[in-house]
Specification:
The complex is a heterodimer.
Chain A: E1 14-15, H1 24-32, E2 38-41, H2 46-53, E3 67-70, H3 75-80, H4 83-97, E4 102-105, H5 108-113, H6 117-128, E5 132-135, H7 143-158, E6 174-177, H8 187-199, E7 204-206, H9 215-218, E8 225-228, H10 234-244, E9 248-250, H11 258-263, E10 275-279, H12 282-295, E11 300-305, E12 319-320, H13 324-334, E13 338-341, E14 355-358, H14 362-365
Parallel strand pairs in A: 2-3, 2-4, 4-5, 6-7, 6-8, 8-9, 10-11, 10-13, 11-12, 13-14
Chain B: E1 10-12, H1 13-19, E2 35-36, H2 42-45, H3 54-58, E3 64-70, H4 72-75, E4 96-100, H5 103-108, H6 111-125, E5 132-137, H7 139-144, H8 148-159, E6 163-167, H9 179-188, E7 200-204, H10 216-222, E8 227-230, H11 237-241, E9 248-251, H12 257-267, E10 271-273, H13 280-293, H14 301-318, E11 323-327, H15 334-343, E12 347-352, H16 360-369, E13 374-376, E14 395-397, H17 399-404, E15 409-411, H18 422-439
Parallel strand pairs in B: 3-4, 3-5, 5-6, 7-8, 7-9, 9-10, 11-12, 11-14, 12-13, 14-15
Antiparallel strand pairs in B: 1-13
Helix pairs in contact in B: 1-16, 6-8, 9-12, 14-18, 15-16
The chains are: A alpha/beta, B alpha/beta.
Chain lengths: 368, 440
């Protein structure tokens, strides 16, 4: 056997320490929580088990149970591509549950057999006489891509001008928020965000999810602006801007995370020049950097993320990590005194002996 | 919002028995309906979401480590496997590594060429060398038709340690070799022939230990067995290899029968199947059968009496007022357990389970003794509309029953340590009695 240093391996896709982060399947499904639809995961059962068992909605305390089902694909379904059987099952389920819409979410199996989701959407709409949304998730990509695709599909399907109207009529002081899912926000953070926006002059805040129903998506059309507090909401906001001239802005109010504000106080003690790495979704990391930089003007603060970034929100030196080994090398070579990030990431850095402030990210550890 | 006025599907024992095992209603079959993903159904969809799935099961091999080769979504729930060290001092979370596939890998199969290097880096990254490296494959490789035996051989030659594939093919769960059967076969496939020891036997079926207070151990000891081995109790690789010296295997879970058959072929170890039962008389009959095979005479009177006493005590204190809902997410067969309770004079109003043809043996008896007992299935979407207030159940047995009846007394009975025999009867009734006392 040849000598190998695990921190220097170059095997693509290999993670020696970190379990997988939330995939696009979980991200997509999380967008539909509380919207009153029936969500179908086109899988054999294992993906649905992961989505509902680990990344699931149980901890959200929703008023009604989420209607999430697995297609229960078997080997011959996959080999023969029996979409007609899926449609029959779906029709029965719709008769039982009477949802207000149907969301069909992909998984690795339909990705491998090349399921035509656009065709599936049309056939399912005809069979069920309900609006159907499809999200071509494949379980390979990260959660934020699933969230982005699901929001995009939702607004495309449900945001319409009022009948007879030639342009939208915005209501003053009404704000829409896109991108708030349990992957990036706790229930408390969601509530704090809502309260914070109301206290800053917005009279109505439309934040789809958590028992708001499908109508909350339709209501976005009358908002004055859209706020995007996580990059996963950006694609849908850009669509609304292009299609309806609905402006958006990005940003994450630091004040909504009370635990973090308390924990980062530990970094505010003047010592040797600090070099800090913040690992989170991009907008949350940026907000923390702005806050810390104000308190520690001499500190070098770098933001990094394992997820998609908005080029407009990056500054020079910000990092997008694709591989565990790349993250390890960057941290170990970077001589950081402090890291602010989900503590699960520490598993990948057994040699790191600097300061660590836990900044939980559900999409990473499944903990908040 | 979805309309919540719908009613959940159910069928009485009488109706189900009259249809027979050949005509199980569509609503109770998994092949023609979408499968609901409530917390009550989680075990069905993904055995690994709670309890033992293929990933945890494979790691029952002492000193093993596992490389999960899959899209990210298949390994997501392993983040939860950071439980305290097991009896060997091993922590599940530290025994996994992941080779995450991307679109190119799936189209080209290029990931296969990276496996030997990944295995080697995995071995190097751990403080001590593993006994075996398991390669866990998922639906993607099932569809690609990857020859993982060959890939594992290549990786083994490259790193100089045994490497074995482990198939987590959810797509094949209705096949003749579903994943939980295949992983049990894999677990014993590394045994090497040993001379027979007439005083040794193995217990097959579970990935966690049998309850140490089960009478099975003293009974086997009374039959001259000095070594009773279970894979979850093997402290190291040597312990595991000694399983090949067994004179016979006791199979306590039917999913282990193919593994036992292979051991019979390869190591000349015959096997006897025992069922986990909750009726004391049936347990006695089973032990009488086993004692005849072992040509001995088991003294079960003490255990029988203790179990019977626990039943009678519960029946006397709480029997009249208790109405059971019996689930399938527990250590037992929901139909057998329900029949046992009914035969003890207790009332079972609802069962939450998916009937298999073999269950009709119990269903027919339930139809005679408790014809109006209703069967619900956790997998039906209609269970989203189950309302606790419409049910007479006031005692939930099983994690799924407890999910439907959050306000009832409950015993989950789904601990990882496996109850068996009279000990299981005694313990479940003691726990039920305690639950009733606590509530009172």
């Amino acid at each position: 056997m040849t000598e190998t240093n695990p921190s220097k391996h170059n095997t693509k896709g290999l993670r020696l320490y970190l379990p997988p982060f939330a995939p696009d399947t979980s991200g997509a499904v999380s967008v539909f929580y509380g919207l009153g639809g029936l969500t179908i995961i086109v899988d054999a059962g294992g993906c649905a088990g992961n989505i509902c068992g680990f990344d699931g909605p149980d901890r959200l305390g929703l008023e009604h149970p989420e209607l999430i089902v697995s297609a229960g694909l078997r080997d011959m379904d996959a080999i023969m591509g029996r979409d007609d059987k899926l449609i029959l099952k779906l029709t029965k389920a719709v008769q039982q549950a009477r949802p207000s819409f149907v969301a069909i979410i992909g998984s690795p199996v339909p990705s491998v057999i090349g399921t035509d989701f656009q065709a599936l959407e049309k056939i399912a709409e005809k069979a069920t006489e309900l609006p159907v949304i499809t999200v071509e998730a494949d379980g390979i990509r990260s959660y934020d891509e699933g969230v982005a695709r699901a929001y995009y599909a939702l607004v495309k399907k449900f945001v319409k001008l009022l009948p007879g109207a030639k342009e939208r009529i915005p209501r003053p002081h009404k704000l829409g928020v896109l991108g708030v899912t349990q992957m990036d926000f706790t229930i408390d953070e969601r509530k704090s965000l809502n309260e914070s926006l109301l206290s800053h002059g917005w009279k109505t805040v439309v934040m789809p999810g958590l028992d708001t129903g499908r109508v909350s998506i339709q209501e976005l059309i009358s908002c004055e602006r859209i706020m995007v507090p996580a990059p996963a909401g950006l694609a849908a906001a850009k669509y609304l801007e292009k299609k309806y001239g609905l402006p958006y802005f990005t940003g994450y109010p630091m004040g909504i995370n009370h635990d973090l504000l308390r924990d980062v106080q530990l970094l505010l003690v003047p010592t040797t020049p600090l070099k800090i790495l913040i690992v989170q979704q991009q907008y949350a990391a940026n907000a923390l950097r702005t806050f810390l930089q104000g308190q520690l003007p001499n500190a070098t603060i770098v933001c990094g993320t394992f997820f998609h970034t908005d080029p407009g929100g990056s500054v020079q030196g910000d990092q997008r990590f694709h591989e565990e080994a790349e993250f390890r090398r960057y941290v170990m070579d970077g001589e950081f005194n402090a890291i602010v990030g989900d503590k699960l990431l520490k598993r990948a850095l057994p040699e790191y002996d600097g300061f660590w402030v836990d900044y939980p990210h559900f999409a990473i550890s499944g903990k908040k | 919002m979805a309309n919540l006025e719908r009613t959940p599907y159910s069928i009485t024992m009488k109706e189900l028995a009259s249809l027979g095992r050949e005509h199980i209603p569509e609503e109770l079959r998994t092949d023609n309906q979408l499968i609901y993903n409530s917390p009550a159904a989680l075990d069905f969809n993904s055995p690994g979401a709670q309890g033992f799935g293929v990933k945890r099961a494979g790691l029952a091999l002492p000193g093993s480590i596992m490389l999960l080769i899959s899209p990210a979504c298949c390994g997501r729930n392993t983040a939860a496997l950071s439980s305290p060290p097991d009896i060997r001092g091993e922590v599940y979370g530290e025994r996994f590594a992941y080779l995450q596939l991307d679109e190119n890998d799936i189209v080209t199969g290029r990931h296969l060429s990276r496996i030997p290097a990944a295995v080697e880096a995995f071995i190097q990254s751990r403080p001590k060398p593993p006994t075996v490296v398991l390669l866990c494959l998922t639906c993607v490789d099932a569809l690609l038709g990857t020859d993982m035996e060959r890939v594992a051989r290549k990786a083994s030659e490259y790193c100089g340690l045994p490497v074995r594939p482990c198939y987590m093919y959810a797509l094949t769960r209705d096949s003749i070799r579903p994943p939980m059967v295949a992983v049990r076969q894999m677990l014993y496939s590394l045994l090497e022939p040993l001379p027979k020891n007439p005083r040794a036997c193995n217990i097959l079926g579970f990935f966690s230990p049998l309850s140490k207070s089960s009478e099975l151990y003293p009974l086997l000891e009374s039959a001259g067995m000095e070594q009773v081995r279970e894979i979850s109790c093997c402290r190291n690789w040597q312990d595991y290899l000694q399983m090949a010296e067994a004179n016979f295997n006791l199979v306590l879970n039917p999913e282990s029968i193919p593994a036992a058959q292979e051991m019979a072929q390869q190591h000349s170890i015959p096997f006897v199947e025992l069922k986990r039962l909750y009726e004391p008389d049936k347990i006695a009959s089973q032990y009488r059968g086993l004692s005849r095979i072992l040509q001995t005479d088991f003294d079960i009177s003490k255990y029988h009496h203790e179990a019977q006493t626990s039943i009678e005590q519960f029946a006397e204190h709480f029997g009249k007022q208790t109405v059971f809902g019996v689930g399938s997410r527990l250590n037992g067969n929901a139909f057998e357990l329900s029949l046992a309770l009914v035969r003890m004079g207790l009332k079972v109003s609802e069962i939450y389970a998916l009937p298999q043809p073999a269950d009709f043996f119990y269903i027919k008896s339930l139809a005679k003794l408790s014809p109006e007992t209703k069967l619900f299935t956790n997998l039906s979407l209609s269970m989203a509309f189950y309302r606790e207030e419409d049910s007479p159940v006031n005692f939930a047995l099983g994690a799924d029953a407890a999910y439907y009846h959050p306000h009832a007394r409950k015993v989950l009975w789904n601990e990882e340590t496996q109850p068996f025999g009279y000990q299981a009867v005694k313990e479940i009734f003691n726990q039920m009695e305690a639950a009733c006392h606590d509530r009172n």
